[in-house]
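Checked the freezer inventory, then went back to the computational side. Two predictions to log before the end of the day. The first one is the construct we discussed on Monday; recording sequence and tokens without edits.
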Amino acid sequence: MTFIQIWQINFAMYGNSLPRLIRTYATGVGLTHRTVSTYMAGSGDFCDRLERGCDVTTRRADRVAQKLSDNWPTDLPWPLDIPRPDPAPDSPAALAAAETVIPPEDAA
């Protein structure tokens, strides 16, 4: 696989999905996309740069996607067409989801 092919796959996976996730999260929690970009990627213009076609390393994209998943509000649906990384066990999203789980009734 050539560098260009790898870049095209990387952009297809992250170039459209991450800005959408950042903007969805921002709207859902009442923040600007620049604020969420700063919290999740360490740069307020991260989302804007991706939307302009700038590149992102796979490692950074994975890290941002993981942070979004770890902090995603339980009442905000994750876009169905974007694969979601499993939230870390001790993350706010995992802990909130665990609180909403209803234990099964006793069989006895």
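The second is the one RB wanted added to the comparison set:
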Amino acid sequence: MSENTPTAPTQYLSFFLAGEEYALGILQAREIIEYDTVTRIPGVPAWVCGVCNLRGSVVPVIDLSVRLGMPPATLSRWSCIVVVEVTLGGERVVLGLLVDSIGQVIELAAGEVAPPPGFGTPVKVNYLLGMVRSDAGRKFVLLLDLDKVLGSEEVLSAAALLPPAESSVQPPASPPLEEGPRDSSDALRPQADAAAARE
């Protein structure tokens, strides 16, 4: 078993990217917001969507699909931004992660997390804490190690190109979504309804 595999009951927030279900530690997730206006910034890597205005604070938004080596996310009414807190350069930094949709809150007991395989996963193995069977039982939910996904020098360099976090943004309008805005959520909560609606 991986040395990073949790040994105590832990909650994870799951979400979908390109049809696969991933999850992150719920303590890293601060809130979920609907995808609205994101202001693009020149000179940043392709996986940086830009910045959004979160109650007067500038929050960099990362297309997690592109960061993990997949095609860019396709915006829809289910697209949302998971606001997380990670360590960059020894400091805690708030970032937004663009995901296709929210899944559910998963509670895992000790021993339920399996180590990731050495090959065959859609993302780098060192980005994973492990994996766990989904409710359907036929597929796995991949548990991301966000500090490794976002904690590289590459991400730190990109963050330095963005406006300071304490400034505010007056963003222009973004291109319209495929179907229209999704109801926003100002607090984390299980969203099994979203998963059922996709089916």
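For RB: The two ends are 33 Å apart (CA to CA). The CA atoms of residues 31 and 187 lie 5 Å apart. Let me know if you want it refolded.
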